[in-house]
Amino acid sequence: MKILITGGLGYIGSHVATVLIQNDIDTVLIDTLENSRIQVLEGIESITGKAPVFRKIDVGEEIEMNQLFEEFPDIGGVIHFAAYKSVGESVSQPLRYYNNNLGSLQQLLKYLIPNSIPLIFSSSCTVYGQSETLPIREDEQLKSATSPYGNTKKIGEQIILDCCKANPNFNAILLRYFNPIGAHSSAKIGEYPNGVPQNLVPFLTQTVKGLRPILKVFGYSYDTPDGTCIRDYIHVMDLAQAHVESLDYLLNNKNQETCEVYNVGTGKGVSVLELIKSFESATGKKVPFEISDPRPGDTIVAYADPSKIKLNIGWMANYSLEEALLSAWKWEEKINQ
Ligand code: WQD
């Protein structure tokens, strides 16, 4: 039996593929290479000693997907990462995001549902917006999305939930990631930001590397202990392990409902200034930063209550923030030698 990973050469997909292969789970990776690099395949092979099966395929292309499932009739589960994921870009190109992210998902479901192939969907804490209660629980009332990207995750979740209700033999798990950071300890795979990084950690490591003049801290007067925004930063390897354990749970029919949703976070809130201090103590490197204006649309505080995934699936985060930041720095040093 094989596991199909869509967006398998992306940041999170490649780390999940690596951990699955190291658990002797056969995988088929597909990716359009629009936002990823073919060298990631070598990285996965170098770490695992196995060359993953890869096909350059767009999930949204029906003919290509039918050919894929004909070539690999033993695909017994799918982890769906393939999607555009830039919040800012989605605001300026909403139709491109709705077409791609939701079109691909619906194309995939057209095959999975009649064949009762279980699905793990890459969702995001962004569906919560600024949550009323903290830490954030899965039964939190979802707000209207703060971006078309966030809306594609919210609508995607609803599409899957409705399909599971209508087809009891089709089962899915929705994983709401908080803030994935870091890289595999080997520094052979990691995040390749597109252009100027929008996210804090890659921008920070590029600044320390000298690729950016200074890190701007977006906002210093929020209603938080040190005035900066708080997030739940999770090591990408912890996130990868959450997928392995969720897959096992689903494939062994341990799920109580046909569609279950889980937060994947550490449960710890960390401010921007605290993250900077952790990076400096983990790496011994100074972070040049300045206080800047708040970034429009930012939630002020978001961190997970991860008790549901621990209770049902048995997963919890293990890596420390310092380990995650040190791995991010090692990766930055590797790709920008
Ligand atoms: C984190 C904090 C910024 C850059 C993103 C995605 C979201 C989801 C989670 C995928 C914020 C501050 C940032 C900088 C800064 N991922 N910051 N200077 O916004 O929580 O969400 O990851 O689903 O969709 O958007 O992460 O890393 O952009 O920002 O001060 O140069 O760092 O204001 O408080 P965010 P982020």
Enter the CATH topology name of the domain at 2-181 and 234-265.
Rossmann fold
Tally of separate helices: 11
Total strand segments: 13
CATH superfamily of the domain at 2-181 and 234-265: NAD(P)-binding Rossmann-like Domain
- Give the low-pLDDT segments: none
Largest sheet: 7 strands, parallel
Level-1 CATH class name of the domain at 2-181 and 234-265 = Alpha Beta
pLDDT average, as an integer? 97
Range of strand content: 15-25%
* Whole-angstrom Rg: 19 Å
Structural class: alpha/beta
Give the helix proportion (percent range): 40-55%
What order do the helices and strands follow? EHEHEHEHHEHEEHEEEHEEHEHH
Give the end-to-end Cα distance, rounded to a whole number of Å.
40 Å
Question: How would you describe the shape?
Answer: globular
* Attached small molecules: UDP-4-deoxy-4-formamido-beta-L-arabinopyranose
List keywords for this structure.
single chain, 337 residues, alpha/beta, two-stranded parallel ribbon, 40% helix, binds UDP-4-deoxy-4-formamido-beta-L-arabinopyranose
Describe the structure.
The chain is of the alpha/beta class and 337 residues long. Helices cover 40% and strands 16% of the residues. The protein has a domain at 2-181 and 234-265: Rossmann fold (3-Layer(aba) Sandwich), CATH 3.40.50. The chain has eleven helices and 13 strands. Helix 1 (11-22) packs across helix 8, helix 7 packs across helix 11 (321-335) and helix 9 (272-283) crosses helix 11 (321-335). The longest helix is centred in the N-terminal third of the chain and has 19 residues, at 94-112. It binds UDP-4-deoxy-4-formamido-beta-L-arabinopyranose (WQD).
